[in-house]
Description:
Layout: E1 2-7, H1 13-23, E2 27-32, H2 41-48, H3 64-69, E3 72-75, H4 86-93, E4 96-98, H5 109-130
Parallel strand pairs: 1-2, 1-3, 3-4
Amino acid sequence: xxxxxxxxxNAGRSKMAEAFARSMGMEASSAGTVxxxxxxxxxxxxxxxxxxxxxxxxxxxxxxxxxxxxxRIILMGCSVESVCPAVLxxxxxxxxxxxxxxxxxxxxxxxxxEIRDEILRKVKALKNEIN
Length: 131
């Protein structure tokens, strides 16, 4: 099963979720509706603390093929509806769910760790559900 994690900038939550899912052997990718130029450095630091290096990862732009190829789409709680083209949004709705996670952008490392740990719990639960 292929999982796609989506948020606006693809620089924090969706990158963490993708990295955790891949580390658990899941087929996963992530994308943003308005991708940032780079991964949030505080997010990268928090992930390094748990042994996962995402510093070389680059945010990706969400496209129709990604949506079509995904079996499950997880929205990270960032109101992508406001910046997502209608054609993509319609296709996403059929197989998506929203985890409604707090955005780590501009947050101190302590808060980013809490968000990271919540994402890890959710990815573990998703893996158990899929298996």
